Amino acid sequence: MCRVVTFHLRLSGGLMSSTIEAPASQLPLPMQNVLSRLAANSTEAEQALVRKAYTYAAAAHAGQVRLSGEPYLSHPLAVAEILAELGFDAHAVAAGLLHDTVEDTKVTLEEIDAEFGEQVADIVDGVTKISMMNFDSKEEQQAENIRKMILAMSHDIRVPVVKLADRTHNMRTLDFQKPHRRQAIAQETMDIYAPLANRLGLHRIKLELENLSFKYLHPDKYGQIFDWMETNQVVERQIISKIIARLEDTLQENGLQGTVWGRIKHAYSIYRKMTEQNLTLEDMHDILAFRVIVKEVRDCYAMLGLVHAQWKPVPGRFKDYISMPKANGYQSLHTTVIGPEGERIEIQFRTEEMHRLAEHGVASHWLYKERNHAVDVRDAPEFEWLREILDRQGEESDSKEFMHSLRLDLFKDEVYVFTPAGDVKELPEGATPLDFAFLIHTQVGSRCVGAKVNGKLVPLGTPLKSGDTVEILTDKNRHPSRDWLKIVKTAKARNRIQQYLRTEERAAAITLGREMLEKEGRRMGLSLARAEKEGHLKALAQNFSVASADDLLASVGYARYTAKAVLNRLQALVAPPETVDLPEALADASSIRKKDRATSQEAPSGQSGAISVRGVDNMLLRFAKCCNPVPGDSIVGFVSRGRGVIVHTSTCPNVRDLEPDRLLSVQWDGHETQPFPVRVHLLANNEKGILADVAVVMRDEDANISSCLLQCTLDNRTEMEFEIEVRDVAHLYHVIDKLRHIPAVLEVVRKTTDEE
Q: What stretches of 10-129 show up as alpha helix (H) in DSSP?
């Protein structure tokens, strides 16, 4: 039979109309398999759409080859075949064939929309990487690509499924990548894509991605387990046949209809069990898994009882996912028993409907309900985890924080706990009562002072177990603490705590900034209150290119600008006409504003001015008085209770006495323009004019003297201690070097004290 497909493809020479005859018998075998699987659940028009997508992709990728040397078309064909095997509809399969055309050819998204419709175009758009944007790091690029996919999947869950099919075939052909690329891709797959497949209920995809990732991340261990399985599989398969026969006899003897499957576990499953239980391969005895598929739910429980009557169950290894399904909708009974030959065997009991969901996951929406329709998952109860990610993703601008939160959401197994009213709540494994409190409501979490688990008071960091009943104790005067970040395991709780801390620290920074400006203002004869009342502070905020007066005050509190630098500029704006030439003052103010705008444009967005704090935005910063760090010093941050982050030099003696858990990695952001105070101790012969000589050097080297203490010693020497303002370490030691060249000077050192 011959199918005629007409399409338009935009090539470098313009829009080309082409009619291609594609006899079904001459299509590649993968494409024949795709059409064969679609035939049972699709119309002729839908199958024609897929044929058209194949022809379009073949023309678009013509001449392109993969690293393996195969024609590039082999990849989209494999992706389409995986989607068809999963049971997805014609639109998803067509998108699989076209998923790389926009990114890797001259085809545009608008052309995909015109030729194949909005559904296919939206899926292709969701899968296409953000390749036209510039990123500061690979990690940021990865985060934004994942973020885009998450946003797209909220409107159509087929987007991540096409991406998972794409990743599955890429993992199958990973041998052709360079070693470092193999490692990076395998790690990303293990961290993000395998857990995502699990969340979507795509069990087969999840197992394959885990196994392939394990192969490249730990090739030695993978090889050992694989060889061991090959050596033992003959005996194991004999045992599998015996147990299948026993289970089938049990079904028949009790008048139950069903099927039994048995297999040896996957290499990664064996590796996980070995690492979790600290076992060697010789200690591994429970590597066999069986599945009994029956007609009714009651038959699952009946078979469970019959099996437990035959073989002794292992205590603590029974899980009822029928009465309490997993987050992805998965249902089964799981048990582990001591088999007929003394080995441990795992058995699952499920109905045909449960098996369909376990095998196809979200594909079941299209198999039975939503074929050829985009499904908005925001109202689907099984995708509550996705709605939480969507609610938070706009609040997490930092790429590292977003990826950390996403891993928390995707990677953990679940535990199921009860409220005092008997409602079931799902949490990731390892979650604490504090996570439970924030899951109930943000206010409950924020005001949490204690928790009862099964009627007993427990610490807030106690890990919860399935079946626990949790009661939260609250106090309206309680607020989140930074120490809570060490306790919580869920992204929601972490996000809400950080949100509160940022708000509170901003308020503290505004208060501190005001105090610093008022104190320095009194010394300079300037009234901050008067400047605020007369609108000068608002004008000054514009001068510094910040949005409001509060933002300017916060910037001083966060140590982005010194109080003196702000007040010097304020003085230029409010100087009385009789003491300052007005045109000259205006010109100076204008030049200052231009300079600030230029500086603001050069500084990258997201930087904190003088210091960047890794993993935390807009923390209240103070510089330690004991060591007076300046740009160029190696520095470390200490999270002080109620005082934000105190920045020390890494060599500061006081750092040794600080709690290690509260130390932060901090660094200069490379855009420091303000002066930094530092103390210098100088010892000289007590000669006439020595102070003048020192002052001249300071002036010539552009080091402003903020304060000076002098003391004459009994041996006719003079000790001087200066606080000077320098730009950075290089500037400081240049000044020190010049001071040492003064004939009367005996010693010059940078001064530190033992007090903070």
A: 29-39, 44-60, 74-86, 90-98, 101-104, 109-116, 118-127
Q: What is the pLDDT of residue 313?
A: 92
State how far the Cα of 473 lies from the Cα of 453, in Å rounded to an integer. Answer: 11
Q: DSSP letter for 474, please.
A: E
**CA–CA separation, 651 and 661 (whole Å):** 18
Q: Please check the confidence at residue 245 and state whether its pLDDT lies above 90.
A: yes
What average pLDDT does the structure give for the chain? 80
CB contact at 8 A, 627 and 685: no
| Cα gap 655→647, rounded to integer Å | 10
Neighbours of 612 (CB within 10 A): 18
Catalytic residues: 103-104
Cβ neighbours, 10 Å, residue 519: 11
For residues 672 and 610, the answer to whether their CB atoms sit within 8 Å is yes
CA 713 to CA 701: how far, in whole Å?
28
Residues paired with residue 290 on neighbouring β-strands, in sequence order? 262, 347
Q: Which residue has the tokens 């049971």?
A: 87
CA distances from 356 to 16, 350, 511, 523 (A): 44, 10, 60, 77
- Kind of pairing, strands 635-640 and 611-613? unpaired
Residue 608, pLDDT above cutoff 50: no
pLDDT at 472 over 90: yes
Query: What's the rounded Cα separation, in Å, for the pair 55 and 21?
Result: 10
**Residue 51 pLDDT > 90, yes or no?**
yes
**382 pLDDT higher than 70:** no
Confirm if 709 and 645 have CB atoms less than 8 A apart. no
A 10 A CB-CB count for 610 gives 23
Is the pLDDT at 473 greater than 70? The verdict is: yes
Buried b (16+ CB within 10 A) or exposed e, 63-85: eeeeeeeebbbbbbbbbbbbbbb
Query: Which residue in the block uniquely carries the two structure tokens 């104190």?
Result: 519
pLDDT in tens, 293-324: 999 999 999 999 999 999 999 888 888 989 88
Q: How far apart are CA 49 and CA 540, in angstroms?
A: 63
Quote the tokens at residue 655: 């750092």
Cβ atoms of 388 and 492 closer than 8 Å: yes
If DSSP states are collapsed to H, E and C, what string results for 695-736? HHHHHHCCCEEEEEEEEECCCCEEEEEEEEEECCHHHHHHHH
Average pLDDT over residues 427-446: 90
Q: What is the dihedral of CA 475, 441, 331, 452, to 10 degrees?
A: 0
| Cα separation, 550 vs 527, whole angstroms | 17
Distance CA 97, CA 78 (A): 9
Contact 458, 452 (CB under 8 A): yes
Q: How is 129-187 classified by DSSP, letter by letter?
A: --TTS--SSHHHHHHHHHHHHHHHHTT-THHHHHHHHHHHHHHHTGGGS-HHHHHHHHH
Q: Among candidates 184, 102, 80, 191, which has minimal Cα distance to 137?
A: 184
* CB of 354 closer than 8 Å to CB of 305: no
Question: Alpha-carbon distance 424 to 369, whole Å?
Answer: 27
Burial class (CB in 10 A: 0-12, 13-18, 19+), 591: exposed
How would you class 301 by CB atoms within 10 Å of its CB: exposed for 0-12, middle for 13-18, buried for 19 or more?
Answer: middle
Q: Which two tokens stand for residue 194?
A: 């395998």
> What pLDDT is recorded for position 373?
54
